DNA sequence: CAGTTAAATAACCGACAGGTTAAATATAGG
DNA sequence: CCTATATTTAACCTGTCGGTTATTTAACTG
């Protein structure tokens, strides 16, 4: 996929690449230096860097024969924003609070925001619905 | 990779799967209902659901011939935590503040936390370093 | 110039991702 | 038992991923 969010998440879906980003968070550095911690050939690291670059997560300069890499965390902002939309689903207190509020102020059909909070299976009853 | 964080990010790296999660955020529903918005066969959706399930992002019940899916956002918490570590790199105000603090209170070698904030290329000067 | 170092590219490989169609499975209902 | 519905599984295809080794490009050094 070519959408930026998919590229960002795909780039993060590899522990080597996440380690590279963690290293770059400590400062700009060379490819050889980035490759040092890994039991992996240089071309492999080079490919990981290309994935990160195409995802916009790093950019590279030129200094003599070195290509210093630096972190470019912009895309992480959108990734974080996407995930944050789901915070209430892993924050139990907020979740419990919401259920409580739903009981005190039941969501009405007119309220778009509230109608999103529907509970229960939400499937079409279709035929018999025996149970 | 089999580590949970990689599985989570890999699961999120597909727009169809993100849309499925968005739909499930509005409530539990059936596979057919989940598949409806997509121009894609049912087996394809089924595979996406399997990816999400193996990543721990959804779980499935059984109700007659339906297999209702529900969101299980637990893994998103760790993903969010990982990304949050980089917030300072996309939050310019915080970044500027940090540079300001570094100038007022220069990081010392003894301070592990501070020594992480090194600026500049951070590569080995090695040989000549002509410039 | 020749030699060294840094990094990228090319060519190749096995494994997996994402899709298809066709067949199998599970359950409800007449 | 037969049929319809919901969903999964099987088999297959194509493209991409993550890795390799060998080669090439680029820049400094003596």
Q: What gyration radius of chain A follows from the Cα positions, in whole Å? A: 23 Å
Indicate the CATH architecture of the largest domain in chain A: Orthogonal Bundle
Number of domains of chain A: 2
Order of helices and strands of chain A: HHHHEEHHHH
Q: How many β strands of chain A by DSSP? A: 2
Class computed from helices, strands and strand pairing of chain A: mainly alpha
Task: Tell me, rounded to a whole number, the average pLDDT of chain A.
Answer: 80
| Main interface by residue count | A-B, 50 and 50 residues
Q: For the record, give the distance between the C-alpha atoms at the N and C termini of chain A, rounded to a whole number.
A: 43 Å
Q: Could you say which overall geometry of chain A the principal axes of the C-alpha atoms support?
A: elongated
Helices of chain A, by number, come to: 8
CATH superfamily of the largest domain in chain A: Winged helix-like DNA-binding domain superfamily/Winged helix DNA-binding domain
CATH fold-level topology of the largest domain in chain A: Arc Repressor Mutant, subunit A
Describe the sheet with the most strands of chain A: 2 strands, antiparallel
| Unreliable stretches covering 5 or more consecutive residues of chain A | 109-131
What is the class of the largest domain in chain A in the CATH system?
Answer: Mainly Alpha
Oligomerization = homodimer
Taking strands numbered 1, 2, ... along the chain, how are they ordered across the largest sheet of chain A? Answer: 1-2
Give the helix level of chain A as a range of percent. 40-55%
Strand content of chain A: under 5%
């Amino acid at each position: 996929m070519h959408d930026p969010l998919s590229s960002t998440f795909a780039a993060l879906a590899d522990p080597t690449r996440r380690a590279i980003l963690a290293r770059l968070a400590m400062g700009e550095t060379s490819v050889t230096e980035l490759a040092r911690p890994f039991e992996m050939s240089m071309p492999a690291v080079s490919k990981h860097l290309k994935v990160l670059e195409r995802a916009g997560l790093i950019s590279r300069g030129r200094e003599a024969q070195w290509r210093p890499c630096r972190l470019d965390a912009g895309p992480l902002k959108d990734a974080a924003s996407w995930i944050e939309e789901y915070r209430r689903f892993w924050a139990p207190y907020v979740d419990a609070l919401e259920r409580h509020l739903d009981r005190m102020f039941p969501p009405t059909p007119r309220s778009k925001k509230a109608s999103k909070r529907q509970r229960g299976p939400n499937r079409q009853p279709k035929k018999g619905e025996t149970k």
